[in-house]
Amino acid sequence: MCEVGRIKHHLKHNLWNPKSTILFVGYQAVGTLGYSIVNGAKKVKIFGEEIAVNARIEYIEGYSGHADQEGLMNFIYSFINKPKHIFLVHGEMEAQNTLEEKIKQDTGICVTVPEFGETYELSAINEGEKEVNTSIKLTNKIERRVTTTIRREVITRLEKLKEEIKDMESCVRQDIEDKALRDEDIFRINEKIKDLEKQIINVIEG
């Protein structure tokens, strides 16, 4: 999803070029760099530098590693003995809710979309040797406080920032070692690094 790794270097050096084509072949989650590009962003930030999106952007959905709604419904239809209850535990909330309604309307199967920290107890109800029903009981629910969520987000962003700095270091070293690099380009890179240094110091001291 273009968040870390060599892809960011390729994007930095090609995204601005109208002669380039950037081809996406997989799902791009909301909030990622890939999502922004696919959904028409005119400018994006890569390694702290604003890059114009002038390249041709193409997207092929067929290579996604996940089944779409039709594929998931066909999977449910394929059961001879239909599931008595389905838990949806993967995907974006809007997509989960849509699929939940689709399953309920088309199959009559009960669906649960668990929230973070919920625990369910499943038990079979039998008549003799035959299972006639399944009992679903919510046994635990964690109430998340905003402060906990924000703290977790801060740690996640710090980890992501470390990866970004590693990628930036690799990118800058690659540029600096380029013998064809002009003096003004080196000066510009140095100024950007100084700006980044100031921002980091402001965060630490602020």
Concise description?
This protein is an alpha/beta fold and 206 residues long. It contains six helices and eight strands. 45% of the residues lie in helices and 20% in strands.
Describe the secondary structure blueprint for this structure.
Layout: H1 6-14, E1 21-24, H2 33-38, E2 43-46, E3 49-52, E4 56-59, H3 69-77, E5 85-87, H4 93-107, E6 110-112, E7 119-127, E8 130-140, H5 146-176, H6 183-205
Parallel strand pairs: 1-4, 5-6
Antiparallel strand pairs: 2-3, 7-8
Question: Could you name the key traits of this structure?
Answer:
3 domains; 8 strands; Rossmann fold; single chain; alpha/beta
Give an account of the 3D structure.
By secondary structure, the chain is of the alpha/beta class. It folds into three domains: about 1-65, Rossmann fold (3-Layer(aba) Sandwich); about 70-140, no CATH class; about 150-205. About 45% of the residues lie in helices and about 20% in strands. The protein is built from six helices and eight strands, in the order H-E-H-E-E-E-H-E-H-E-E-E-H-H. The protein has helices at about 5-15, 35-40, 70-75, 95-105, 145-175, 185-205, and strands spanning about 20-25, 45, 50, 55-60, 85, 110, 120-125, 130-140. A hairpin with a 2-residue loop joins strand 7 (about 120-125) and strand 8. The protein is elongated, with a radius of gyration of 24 Å. About 5% of the residues are buried. The mean pLDDT is about 85.
